[in-house]
Amino acid sequence: MLRLALSFLTTLPVRAPAAPEGSLGRAAPWFPVVGALVGALLAAAWWGLGLVFPPLLAAALIVALWAALTGGLHLDGLADCGDGMLSALPPERRLEIMHDPRLGTFGAISLVLFLLLKVFAVAGLPQASPAGYLSLLLAPALARWLLLIVARRPLARPDGMGAAFSQGLTPGAIGVAAVVPAVLAVLCGWQGLAGVAAAALVAGLIMLAARARLGGVTGDVLGLTVELSELAVLLVFAAQI
Predict the structure, then answer these.
(1) Alpha carbon distance 159, 18 (integer Å)
(2) Per residue in 32-91, pLDDT tens?
């Protein structure tokens, strides 16, 4: 199941065995583990790039590496949600727009603004403190756990990636998956707990918006949850308080 989670969530050269429908949901306990692995690679790269480049350029390179490691999977969901959820249209039409592979104006604006915020958030992390490095582990691990919570909500349509993932996802798996982000949050101290609270608030607002605008959750909404939850954690650690 770890190989299945790695092959789905990252572009790392891992070959997953053939799995029946619903297996992705059963791999859920490994999602935060994969997130922490991605974070460890990012933290190592951030340390190395910080020795060579100024903070803003190093941050831009880290965000580019972040997208490369995940294959832009969740960024695609964010852009699709920008196109669909921000449109003043009925829920059925919004779902059609989100299913369209073409990028619209709202999606492009959402993607550009998000990437700018993420670059500046990474640039603002305290590089001289272990908290900065730990935040790069916590953000992707916690976001992939919150993804599991959102995936348990009512679906906007019975097919698609969201439906395939929710099949086989159990409360027990969600509980086991919480171990990694919980440990990382404790290691981060009060900032870690604040980051968890901020990311959970963001995920809750996304669930409410998805229900109101779409009638439920989709695979794109799960991608949106990951990206905005990660950003929420980074902003907490970058805050000058």
Answers:
(1) 20
(2) 999 999 999 999 999 999 999 999 999 999 999 999 999 998 999 999 999 999 888 888
> 110-134 in b/e burial notation, b at 16+ Cβ within 10 A?
bbeebbeebbbbbbbbebeeebbbb
Cut 0.85: pTM above it? yes
**Beta-carbon neighbour count of residue 165 at 10 Å?**
22
Percent pLDDT > 90 in the chain is 65
What's the rounded Cα separation, in Å, for the pair 85 and 127?
Answer: 36
What distance lies between CA 175 and its chain's CA centroid?
A: 18
CA-CA distance, 225 to 150, in Å (whole number)?
A: 8
Q: How far apart are CA 124 and CA 239, in angstroms?
A: 8
Facing residues of 217 across strands? Answer: 155
Expressed in angstroms, the distance from the first to the final Cα of the chain is 40
Give the span between the Cα atoms of 152 and 137, in whole angstroms.
24
Report which residue type is found at 200.
A
Is pLDDT at 19 greater than 60 in this prediction? Answer: no
Q: Where are the domains of the chain?
A: 31-238
Q: Supply the DSSP string of 29-44, one letter for each residue.
A: GGHHHHHHHHHHHHHH
* Three-class SS state of 72: coil
